[in-house]
Each structure stands twice: as structure tokens, then as C-alpha cells.
Amino acid sequence: MTGATTISGPERERIAAVLAEIACAAGEILRRYHRGPCPHALKPDGSPSSAADVEAEDLIVAALTERFPGIAVVAEERAQDATARPGDTFFLVDPLDGTRDFLAGTPDYSVNIALVAGARPVAAALAAPGLGRVWWAGSATVEAAVIAGRPGIGRPVHARAVPETGLVALGSRRHGDAETATCLAALPVLETRQVGSALKFGLIAAGEADIYVRCGPTMEWDTAAGDHIVAAAGGCVVVPGGGPIRYGENGPDHRNGPFAALGDPALASRLALPSCGSRSAQLSAAHP
């Protein structure tokens, strides 16, 4: 498994289904901690890390190492120990995206796992344990209910075209900046909903919303799974200039720049993302 072109469509589907099982299993760990005692501390960047993050990541890394030996794993809680580029093919893992919301008792948190090959995700899973939903994608995106800690029967989902009535935009509860507001002000936004974590990508893939703009910092493990799930559902995730996010090429800190997740790719030509985020946003915690 050395690059995107060497992984067939059926193989991507198989990998994605395995990732969904692993994400749901990690989600059961998070559910046990949710709304109960969960020791946590702040990392050097000011973002929280909890016992739930660490335990879920341990499960995911062990499962990926067992099922896919030889493929590097870049995971959030271990990433500070990595200095070298992980290679052409590697996993990106966020065991608990939306830790602040999780610790506050809200259900908008997620488990994100993506396989990257040739700087782009090729298979991914995104579980929302607090909502009992999971999405996964190889060549196409499917969604299922989480039943007894496992994915149920999946059904295909598709992002939607721009509604005639206007766009439903998704924003972050805990992160906002002027650049994001300016981007959205230029579009026919009918409604803005505040949603935590990478759950926003799943809602766009399922045709329940249309756009998520983020001009403040995020990390590659925050976006890779959702990026692929939106793209495989017919949408896209773009950076300034209209291209895709390229993973594993941003140095050891794995930091993204501004991006937008779009249900309808036709929106990309109407979007003016800044070339870099605001200074205030750059100093905020790097979680969507």
C-alpha cells in the first residue's frame, strides 16, 4: 500500500468499513466518560487533553497497528513526539475531536480516522458517539446508526445542491473570526447553526447543511476524515485558490490554513478565503 493510485475502490471500501468499526469502538470509551468524571489538563497550545482522549487513542492506534501493520499512524496525543514526515501512506487520528464540548457535557464530539495516500485521504470514518451516528467512505459515503458500539447497516448519503431558499452554514461554538464572517456575508446564507467538532463534515455529507468555513487554525487530524467523507458524498473541501488540503506536507506541526467544506462544489467559485487566518484566530486553540 504505497499510494492512492495503488489502492483499488473495493480495497478503499474495505478499509473504510474497518475504520468505522474502530471509530465506534473508541466511541464507546468516550461515552463511558461523557458527563462523568474525566481528568484533563491543558497542552502547551492551550487545548485540553483528557483521559478519554488518551484511552480512545490507545485503542485506535493498537487496532490500526494490528489490522494494518507497517503503516504509520499520526495521532493527536502522540503527534508532539513525531518530527519526520510520516511517508506517502499513513493514518491521521483524532480520538476525541471537540474535547471542550465533550467536557462541557454536550454531544457534539467525534472520532476521526483517515488513511492518507499521496497527500490526500482515500478512506475514512467519522463517528459521533453522542448522537449515535457514524459515517465512513472509501469511494462513496455511507451513514449508519451506532448499535451496541458497532456500525449498523449503512445507507448511501449525498451532499446536496445549493438550495433555492439559501444556504445552511455551520459554525463552531467556540471559535469565530472576522475572516469567516466576511466569507459567509458574501453568500446567500439563510441560517447559521452552531455545531461542535468534525460533526459538521458529516452533516454536510448527509445533505443536512451546505457550508462550513474555517479561517482559524485546525490540525490535519481534525479535518482529514471529514474532508474525505464530504468529497466522497459529492461535495468538496477547498483552500484559498480552490485546491484541496494536502496532508503530510505541513511539517511536524500538521497545521492547516483556512478552508471551506462545501456540499455543492459550484460554491467554490463564489468563495473568497483569505490566504491566512487572522492573528487572533492563529492564537486560538486548534480544534474545529
TrEMBL record:
It comes from the Bacteria. It holds the Pfam family Inositol_P. SUPFAM superfamilies: Carbohydrate phosphatase. Mg(2+) binds at residues 76, 94, 96-97, 222. GO terms for molecular function: 3'(2'),5'-bisphosphate nucleotidase activity; metal ion binding. The keyword Magnesium applies. Its cofactor is Mg(2+). CDD domains: CysQ. The keyword Lipoprotein does not apply. This is 3'(2'),5'-bisphosphate nucleotidase CysQ.
